[in-house]
Hints:
Elements lengths: L25 H8 L2 H10 L1 E2 L4 E2 L2 H6 L7 H39 L20 E4 H4 E5 L5 H5 L4 E4 L4 E2 L2 E2 L5 E3 L3 H7 L6 E4 L1 E2 L7 E3 L8 E2 L3 E6 L5 H14 L1 H5 L1 E2 L4 E2 L2 H6 L1 E4 L2 H41 L9
Helix pairs in contact: 4-11
Amino acid sequence: xxxxxxxxxxxxxxxxxxxxxxxxxxxxxxxxxxxxxxxxxxxxxxxxxxxxxxxxxxxxxxxxxxxxxxxxxxxxxxxxxxxxxxxxxxxxxxxxxxxxxxxxxxxxxxxxxxxxxxxxxxxxxxxxxxxxxxxxxxxxxxxxxxxxxxxxxxxxxxxxxxxxxxxxxxxxxxxxxxxxxxxxxxxxxxxxxxxxxxxxxxxxxxxxxxxxxxxxxxxxxxxxxxxxxxxxxxxxxxxxxxxxxxxxxxxxxxxxxxxxxxxxxxxxxxxxxxxxxxxxxxxxxxxxxxxxxxxxxxxxxxxxxxxxxxxxxxxxxxxxxxxxxxxx
Length: 328
């Protein structure tokens, strides 16, 4: 809820609620309507398709909300506003940490030769050799999905673009298709494999994450490119390089764009020049990345606890289990 411009119209899919300020403040109603107690009522009253449910004006009028004196409503809003401010401050702090982390990592990753340019490297590595990506590890496209892949009784889980986010893999919503014995050997994922988005929007092509589940537990589709680090190469260092390239727009420069999707291309990716540094230097960079990730995870854990506290306080206050004046 906030300021709205004059002359704003509502569509037929929008209901307007005008509060009676003698009974309930607008801020209080906004909090109540977003609470789990009321959202569960809304879910039970939805009609229409699964993808886009509808709720009638009559159903909204039947929603049951806590009858709390206006003076207590103001106190409740103040308590939750304080928690919301703390949440916003922590979110801003995490965003800043991520920005600084990206800058620090970029400053220690040698750059300047990825596309074969003759510029001087801007990295801090003491010794670097520029070699094609496909010489420091193996590069492979995943299996193409076909109607026959869904018809077989032997189905195996595979990862696709929707599962590979920036530096993490989402294992929910995993689909299955058929893989022959030979295909299972070729497309199986091993811990430490890096998956990069082959087909994506131009700014997200090349987004990558490290696979850390069990060997052969998952396979991968041709919308992804797999990089498997070779001898003398740390996956975490390679991932840091690839993420640096993503942020610097290196993948955008080599991607081929169709009508709506950009393609990385295994051959184009494999020909990029990779900054191969000694193993000790790789470990130093990985340790630096780990230190920043630990700081960020700590703040994210703190944010998660704060959000849980906020939800709990809201539910307790709205249910009457805790008096407004005693909430902390």
